[in-house]
Amino acid sequence: MIRHTVAFRLRHPEGSAAETAFLTDARVLATIPGVERFEQLRQTSAKNDFTFGFSMEFADAAAYAAYDQHPDHRAFVADRWVPEVEDFLEIDYEPLPAG
């Protein structure tokens, strides 16, 4: 399993219609085959300047690679993410073996 996470800050004012539209349109990512447990999160810690997070899981590296190449993901990144995200941190995790 791979858990793909990204913490980010938008260029839009907090609570603006543009912020809402970005988050609404980002839900397209949840519809891409292989995406499991898609979540949109509001960052609450004062320890960093990020505002939101996305988290999703994939069964394996092949599912994650297919998501990365999917036209809906590519379009969202090019049309929305690149022009509207001010800063971000992406982290991908794999579980450690139990024991």
Q: How would you summarize what this structure contains?
A:
This protein is α+β, with helices and mostly antiparallel strands and 99 residues long. The chain has helices at 17-25, 61-69, 71-84; strands spanning 2-10, 36-42, 52-58, 85-93. The chain starts with a strand and ends in a 6-residue tail after the last strand.
What does this structure look like?
The chain is α+β, with helices and mostly antiparallel strands and 99 residues long. It has a single domain, classed as Alpha-Beta Plaits (2-Layer Sandwich), CATH 3.30.70.100. Helices cover 32% and strands 32% of the residues. It contains 3 helices and 4 strands; from the N terminus they run E-H-E-E-H-H-E. The protein has helices at 17-25, 61-69, 71-84, and strands at 2-10, 36-42, 52-58, 85-93. The chain is globular and about 45 Å long. It starts with a strand and ends in a 6-residue tail after the last strand. The relative contact order is 0.31. The model has no long low-confidence stretch (mean pLDDT 96).
